[in-house]
UniProtKB/TrEMBL annotation:
Protein name: Formate dehydrogenase subunit alpha
Pfam family, one: Molybdopterin
Organism name: Meridianimarinicoccus roseus
Keywords: 2Fe-2S, 4Fe-4S, Iron, Iron-sulfur, Metal-binding, Oxidoreductase, Repeat
Domain 4Fe-4S Mo/W bis-MGD-type residue range list: 256-312
Location of the 2Fe-2S ferredoxin-type domain: 21-99
Length: 964
């Protein structure tokens, strides 16, 4: 199989690459120079000589068990394994002598004697390394009979494809995505090692001895589904036979071509080879050259792509006069004309600021850029917002104020050089699992971990890692905890004074140091407020300040608070205090939730900022875009989503174009969102499915999946990755084309013919993207912004020689308690999050086999809280707040502390956001999802509100057939 997009060498070199001084040796008469520490096998591959192998692969450390890769080395006795033998200066190696050929053939005979010879009907036929190696060593027959319960026969018996078969062993087909056939296992241990070295789950072992040895998942009674396996696919990718095989390959056949693209789930931005037969996608394989994932994947990116062909997908445009009417399928021309006429009519009647747009963090940079351009250059206002503000806008504000740029400082590779990691308000194993695997590998190598989270997330303790400290703070007290950490560092003199004097504003530091040194910020003074023992907090602060390279990774548990921006500022202060910005292994790193959260921010989706985070009030910035677009840009900032909804209820905001977002399910205070949408006269939903927001829509424009478009995503490390069209759009148009058609129907003269032209316009108007072109991305694989004349191939590490703003800025972080308080009626605190198998509002993952792991949202409650309420495991409970109520089933666990409950928000029949309030971050309006005062009580089933909601949704989703 050949990649026709990027001509990168995808050969398996046998063992990982090494760095070191050059060493020159001779292999089969050819001189080759490689770094010291390189294996003989890899050196041979560098010289174009392939040594036969089965247990070796370049994604895993050498193991040396198969004995197929033996070579002869002058001056050494025996035939060492080339995978475990390092090169030496002047070494002379022979890989094809008669002696090694005889050994290899004998070894291969033993493998084949214990293997079914059903090659013609095997799912791995044509993609089987055992088959390939049998040919490579010249094996033509097998002298040994298959074992029949008693091992190898004592006499020679020719073995053919119709000869004896190994004893029957049942397949394990419990996993929805792949099968395990133990009869085909050659016990190379590649899957076991991949589970350990790459994924870090340790779910697989080898059981039995001799011919009876096989791979086993979990304990004696476990299957692949019930074991600790997280279905990342690393074992499947590592397997050289059909022992572990994707069910899609079994059903569709071996793929014949591939396209390199980027995953459309979380902010890690994994690169994949989409492998196809014709235009039928057979499987997604993590690309070994992907700079964010380095050949790894998670269950979502690896397997959960079936939603793109799900029966629920809407492929034809639809319109209706009122939201109480059924949908009517129409042509694209009619739908766009209907939408344009409605939106123009609303502006004529209610003013040009009466309509707006919402961009998507799931769509490409190019598509997002066009949507905000639609608002500013066609609607002629700045009413543009995005879910990125709903999750990470405090990152933009906090890091912008302190460092001068609103993005993470490192690349993911940086974690390999860290010594102490703080993970605060994030759950990487569930939300960013590929990064989590890399972090766990570093922790197993000796790095220390501090977890700051109300829940006991998996990183706190598992079979192979354990955090040095878990600061189980009370939800809403992030600022107090972070400031207390700074108090310890400053008052105990643990800060890096030389770094601060050189890189930061000393006067601002002095003011901040005076502030944090106050006794009221000490761990002892804040213990009653935060719930974190003072001794634990002091120990954690000392570890971070003195433990070497210190890195901070944070997520929505930091930003989705009324003081989210203040916490981000506090985190930046901690990094500057300890000198942990500007080199590998350190930094401040936001873990972005969706695939293009960073990009949607970069592209100017906020009502006050044009692309590149430049305020719309600045005439010089507006002039750049006015020249490019040929229009005058409104200098007045527009409305954020909550303001749009408020204005709709008041009667002044009338029309909305919403691309790729489901604000009714994802935004807080569901009842208020529904009221705002219902008050609008034209809601245009542009998406794959009739989502919850579409219940209130008048126009539905079918969207295209990431498999059906060209463009770019920008991940959490500022990495701009190419998205490449794998197949033609099933709806007829990529999303950028739909937005352009709507703009043209509104009178614009847009004439893009390819997304690369949109990127050229982005580069021409946005300094941090000035050097970005599709040609560069194809040549480099990906680049990290800023990418410009000073940094022609991007910037992996930010703030190396100085902060973007000049001197780093320390800012006081005064703790202000949220207005959301517990009391007699609502004594518990609710916080929300995600689970590994599901993604965001679940529109994609709920339409895949991932539902086998998470069929419904559950309420996690501590056994003590459950006992006093009479709640039992799996029982229905009512979850109520000042905003609303819903019902779901309970899960009793000590992962949450007494007084805290937790749920996910993946299923619309739960609608967890009917509970959350409209409180938000003081600086950015980011909703306070993570702190809601609630009560939990017994229930008989869904609430009246849930039943009414389901009835309204069913009514709103009626579709009439297209007119003949």
């Amino acid at each position: 199989m050949k990649d026709f997009i990027i001509p990168t060498d995808d050969r398996d070199m046998g063992t990982p690459a090494r760095t070191g001084a050059p060493v020159t040796l001779t292999i089969d008469g050819f001189e080759v120079t490689v770094p010291d520490g390189t294996s003989v096998m890899r050196a041979a591959a560098e010289a174009g000589i392939q040594v036969p192998k089965l247990c070796a692969t370049d994604s895993l450390e050498a193991f040396g068990s198969c004995r197929l890769c033996v070579v002869e080395i002058e001056g050494r006795r025996g035939t060492p394994a080339s995978c475990t033998t390092p090169v030496a200066e002047g070494m002379v190696v022979r890989t094809q002598s008669g002696k090694v050929q005889k050994i290899r053939k004998g070894v291969m005979e033993l493998y084949i004697s214990d293997h079914p010879l059903d090659c013609l009907t095997c799912a791995a036929n044509g993609d089987c390394e055992l088959q390939d190696m049998a040919g490579a060593v010249g094996l033509r027959d097998v002298r040994y009979a298959a074992p029949d319960g008693g091992g190898m026969e004592t006499h020679f018996q020719p073995r053919t494809a119709t000869g004896p078969n190994p004893q029957y062993m049942p397949k394990d087909e419990s996993n929805p995505y792949f099968t395990y056939d133990p009869a085909k296992c050659i016990v190379c241990s590649r899957c076991v090692r991949a589970c350990e070295e790459v994924q870090g789950t340790f779910a697989l072992t080898i059981e039995g001895r001799g011919f009876d040895s096989r791979v086993k998942a979990g304990g004696p009674a476990d299957s692949f589904l019930t074991s600790d396996c997280v279905s990342c696919g690393a074992c499947v990718a590592a397997c050289p036979t059909a022992t572990l095989q994707e069910k899609s390959v079994i059903e569709m056949g071996t793929p014949e071509r591939s396209v390199i693209t980027t995953c459309a789930y979380c902010g890690v931005g994994c690169s994949f080879k989409a492998e196809l037969n014709g235009d039928q996608l057979v499987r997604m394989v993590p690309w070994k050259h992907g700079k964010a994932n380095r050949g790894h994947s998670c269950v979502k990116g690896r397997f959960a792509y079936g939603y793109a062909a799900h029966k629920d997908r809407i492929l034809k445009p639809m319109i209706r006069e009122a939201i109480t009417d059924p949908w009517q399928e129409v042509s694209w021309d009619e739908a766009l004309r209907f939408a344009a006429d409605r939106m123009r009519g609303l502006q004529e009647k209610h003013g040009r600021r009466s309509i707006g747009v919402i961009t998507s963090s799931r769509c490409t940079n190019e598509e997002t850029y066009l949507v905000q351009k639609l608002a500013r250059g066609v609607f002629m206002n700045n009413n543009t917002d995005t879910c990125a503000r709903v999750c990470h806008s405090p990152t933009g504000y906090g890091l912008g104020q302190t460092f001068g740029t609103s993005a993470g400082t490192q690349d993911f590779d940086s974690v390999e050089q860290t010594d102490v990691v703080i993970v605060i308000g994030a759950n990487p194993t569930d939300g960013h699992p590929v990064f989590a695997s890399r972090l766990k590998k570093r922790l197993r190598a000796g790095a220390k971990l501090i977890v700051i989270d109300p829940r006991r997330i998996d990183l706190v303790k598992s079979a192979h890692i354990e955090a040095a400290h878990h600061l189980a703070l009370r939800p809403g007290t992030n600022v107090a905890v972070v400031t207390a950490l700074a108090h310890v560092i400053v008052t105990e003199g643990l800060m890096d004074e030389a770094y601060i004097r050189e890189r930061c504003d000393w006067d601002e530091f002095s003011d901040y140091a005076e502030f944090v040194s106050e006794a009221r910020h000490s761990p002892e003074a804040t213990e009653m407020l935060t719930g974190v023992p003072a001794d634990d907090l002091r120990a954690a602060a000392r570890l971070f300040a003195t433990g070497g390279n210190g890195a901070i990774y944070y997520g929505l548990g930091v930003t989705e608070h009324s003081q989210g921006s203040t916490t981000v500022i506090g985190i930046a202060n901690l990094a500057m205090l300890t000198g942990n910005v500007g080199r590998p292994g350190v930094g401040v790193n936001p873990l972005r939730g969706q695939n293009n959260v960073q990009g949607s921010c970069d592209m100017g989706s906020f009502p006050h900022e044009l692309p590149g985070y430049r305020h719309v009030k600045n005439a010089d910035v507006r002039e750049i875009f006015e020249r490019a677009w040929g229009v005058n840009i409104d200098p007045e900032p527009g409305l954020r989503i909550p303001n749009m909804l408020d204005a709709a209820v008041e009667g002044t905001f009338k029309g909305l174009y919403c691309q790729g977002e489901d604000i009714l399910q994802s935004d807080p205070d569901t009842k208020h969102v529904a009221s705002g949408l219902a008050a609008m006269e034209c809601v245009i939903v542009h998406d794959l499915f009739l989502n919850e927001t579409a219940n209130y829509a008048h126009v539905f424009l079918p969207g295209s999946s990431f498999l059906e478009k060209d463009g770019t995503f920008t991940n959490a490390e500022r990495r701009i990755n190419r998205v490449r069209k794998v197949m033609a759009p099933r709806n007829g148009y990529a999303d950028w084309e739909v937005t352009q058609l709507l703009a043209q129907a509104m009178g614009a003269d847009w004439a893009y013919t390819h997304p690369s032209q949109i990127m050229d316009e982005i580069a021409a108007t946005t300094p941090s993207f000035a050097g970005v072109t599709y040609d560069l991305l194809d040549a480099e694989g990906s680049v990290q912004w800023p990418c410009n004349e000073a940094h022609p191939v991007g910037t992996p590490l930010m703030h190396v020689d100085g902060f973007m703003r000049g001197k780093g800025r320390f800012i006081r972080t005064e703790y202000v308690a949220t207005e959301e308080r517990t009391g007699a009626r609502f004594p518990l605190l609710l916080t929300t999050g995600r689970i590994l198998s599901q993604y965001n509002v679940g529109a994609q993952t709920r339409r895949t086999e991932n539902t086998v792991w998470h069929e419904a949202d559950l309420l996690e409650i501590h056994p003590h809280d459950a006992e006093v309420r009479g709640i039992t495991e799996g029982g229905w409970v009512k979850l109520a707040s000042r905003s609303g109520e819903t019902a779901l089933r309970a899960h009793l666990t000590d992962k949450v502390s007494p007084g805290v409950v937790y749920t996910t928000f993946h299923h619309p029949d739960t609608q967890a956001n009917v509970i959350t309030t409209d409180y938000s971050d003081w600086a950015t309006n980011c909703p306070e999802y993570k702190v809601t005062a609630v009560q939990v009580s017994l229930s008989n089933g869904p609430t009246d509100w849930q039943e009414d909601y389901a009835a309204q949704a069913a009514q709103a989703r009626r579709i009439l057939p297209a007119a003949e």
